[in-house]
Amino acid sequence: MFRMTRAIKFGAGALLAALMLFAVTVPSQAESGGVRLRITKAGFIIGVGGGTGTLTFRGRSYPLSVGGLSVGTLGAATADLVGRAHNLRRPEDIAGTYTAVGGGVAIAGGAAVARLQNSNGVVMELRGRQVGLQISLNLSGMTIAMR
Question: Quick check: pTM over 0.85?
Answer without folding.
Answer: no
